[in-house]
Design goal:
It contains nine helices and twelve strands. It has about 350 residues and is of the alpha+beta class.
């Protein structure tokens, strides 16, 4: 019996080790108060997400400066996008009015702040000098994920980083539109705008820069090495409505023109020849210039003069035929040329 019990003890211990453990408690198990755990999770208040602290630019760009609500960060393909973005809708002017940005521009906060400062500090006084105020800023392009100048494979444009704005025109409250790339706009007015934008932005591209900015002005705040800046905007003069005026007609009391001396021989003054017409040509016209500068044909000789000239001309019978150079003359000429050459060149001549 003792031996049989000793044999059964390892089997009993092995069976105890294989005893199944209890199943894990199901998620829908009832809580002690009779409610399910799922219901308890729903009743539990959600933990609020910690929002990033606003930047110093965002704190400074208040509603008293510009209407620019914040928008979520953009993470586009490649390096496109950015954070601390705003939607610039309008700029608050010093008199409390608003200059709308149409359409609203998606920009980084620093770029939007620079645009607002430029409109408020520079363009508002300029419009006031014209007897009006800025009412609208023509936005041609702000954020767009693309290469520079929309060239495939080109380096990423600052538009792709929401750090650039293309300005087409400024509209005033009196209905006037100042197209910044229009040659018809007053030159001094465009020069004032040029000076203001080049002082505030690190890149200014306009007409005459690269052929891609002939109808607008590109502004951005890219940071380059050693603070390098680009300001390339040619202020072209307006195209004249009519062709430039030609020189006026030379007065009749002016002295006769004298030709310059040539090789010590003075030429006599040539009397002016003017076109004879029933109506006097208009001053500065092509006819007046032709009458003054273009020599007129001489008068046709009379019959008597023509007869006298014909009599003096040699007749074919009396004219001598042209003489031909003889072979002896050719030999003499060659010898003379050979004698004029240096001795070391004479064998080459032979």
């Amino acid at each position: 019996m003792v031996a049989f019990a000793a044999l059964l003890m390892p089997a009993t211990a092995l069976a105890g080790s294989r005893t199944p453990l209890p199943q894990p408690r199901p998620a829908a198990a009832l809580a002690p108060d009779g409610k399910g755990s799922t219901q308890m999770e729903e009743d539990r208040p959600a933990t609020p997400e910690i929002a990033p602290e606003p930047s110093s630019c965002r704190l400074a760009l208040t509603d008293s400066v510009a209407i620019a609500p914040s928008i979520p960060a953009i993470a586009g393909p490649g390096e496109c996008g950015g954070d601390d973005l705003v939607r610039l809708e309008a700029v608050v002017l010093p008199d409390g009015g608003r200059a709308a940005v149409k359409p609203a521009a998606t920009l980084r906060c620093k770029m939007a702040s620079a645009i607002a400062d430029w409109i408020c500090s520079d363009m508002a006084p300029l419009a006031e000098g014209l007897g009006s105020r800025v009412s609208e800023l023509d936005n041609l392009d702000s954020f767009e994920c693309r290469g520079r100048n929309r060239v495939a494979g080109a380096k990423l444009s600052e538009h792709g980083r929401a750090n650039a704005l293309d300005v087409g025109a400024l509209k005033l409250a009196n209905g006037r539109t100042i197209d910044l790339a229009d040659r018809a706009v007053e030159r001094d007015l465009r020069e004032k705008v040029l000076g203001s934008v080049c002082a505030r932005f690190t890149t200014v591209l306009g007409p005459g820069s690269d052929g891609y900015h002939e109808n607008h002005i590109h502004l951005d705040l890219i940071q380059r090495r050693n603070g390098y800046r680009i300001c390339h905007w040619e202020i072209y003069d307006p195209v004249p409505a009519v062709a430039p005026l030609l020189p006026t007609e030379r007065p009749a009391e002016a002295p006769q023109r004298e030709m310059a001396e040539e090789k010590g021989k003075a030429f006599e003054a040539v009397p002016e020849r003017r076109a004879v017409s029933r109506a006097a040509p208009r001053a500065g016209s092509v006819a007046a210039i032709s009458a003054e500068m273009v020599p007129q044909p001489q008068k046709r000789p009379t019959a008597a003069d023509a007869a006298g000239k014909v009599a003096k001309w040699p007749t074919p019978s009396t004219s001598k035929p042209p003489t031909r150079r003889s072979a002896a003359d050719s030999v003499k000429r060659k010898r003379r040329l050979r004698s004029n050459l240096p001795p070391f060149l004479r064998p080459l001549f032979d």
